[in-house]
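User: Could you check the structure of this?
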Amino acid sequence: MTQPSLAHATAFGRMYSRSTSSSPQVPSITTVIGQEAKDLTGWAGHLAATELAGDPRLGGAVGSSSQLKTLAREASDAAARFREAAAARGDRVHAYAEQVARRELGLSHDADAALETLAEHAETAFADRFNEWWELYDVTPLAAEITVWNHTVGYAGTLDLVAEIGGRRCLIDFKTKGLDRRGRAKQLSESVVMQLVAGLQAEESLLDAEAGQWEPWAHGQDCVLLAVAISEAEVVPVQAVPEVLRQHWHKFWALRQVWEHSRSTTEAGRALRQIPPPPVDHAVTTPKDGATSTSEASQVKGYGPGPAGATVTDVTATD
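Assistant: Sure, the predicted C-alpha cells are below.
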C-alpha cells in the first residue's frame, strides 16, 4: 500500500499535513476511531497461553523457574507479534488491490511486483480471491488511495477505493481478514462504518501533495459505503446500512473531541504535584464565633486557591 505522503507518526497518533512541507495539523480517521477503548486483555492472554502451551521447550523447562520465566516472557509478546504480522500482511494485500486499481485506471502500476511479494509470503490466495471478487462485481475504479480532508470537524484520511459497481458509485474500504473455525472470513468490526462515513463527509481531496493543492470532494453524495473483507477463502463485501449512518457519524464526531481534549491535557503539562505538609503553627485560626477558617499564613504553595483565586467551579466545559 502506498504510504500517504502527508501522513505523519506523532506522539498523538497518525496525523496529516496540508502539504509535504507543512506540519501535521489534524488526526487521521483511524487515529480518531482508535480513541474508543477496547478490552483485548482476554484475547492477548489466550494468545500467550496458546503459544506457551505449544512451545516445544516447555517440557524441558518444567522444574526450572528461570527457564519457565523465560518462556512466559517470550509468550507474553504473542499478541504484539500477531498484530505486527497481521498489519504487514494487510499492507501487502492492500498494495496488491491498489496496484490492480491503478492498472485498470491506466496509471503507472506495479501489480506484478505486488503479486510476487504476496507469493514470497505464501499469500497469493488473497490475490486470487480479490481477483474473483473484482470480476464478479464488475468493479470500475474511479480513484485509488485518495487522501481527503474535513475542515469542519478536523480530520483527514486516505480512502482505499472509489469505484462504480452495478451502476452505483461506491466508497470502499478493504480489510484483510483471517479465517474462523469454519474456514470462513472473520466478521468485520462495526467501527468500519465510522471509517466509511468519515470518508463520505470529507470536504476536500488531494490533488498535489508537494504543492498542497486540494479540490472539493467529488464523492460525498449518493454513494454506497462498502467494507470488503478479503481472506484466503473468500471475499465478503458488506454495505453500511444507510439508516444508521447518522448515529455512527455522531460517534465519530464525539471521538474526535476525545482526541482533542486528550491532546490538550497532555500539552498542558504535569497534572499532579507533590506538596509539603502545612505549617503547624499557622495552619488554622479559630474566629470568635467558633467557625474554622484558613489563615493567610496557610496559603503556601499547594494549599492556596490557585492563580487569580481560580477554583474548579470556575472551569467551564466547552464542546
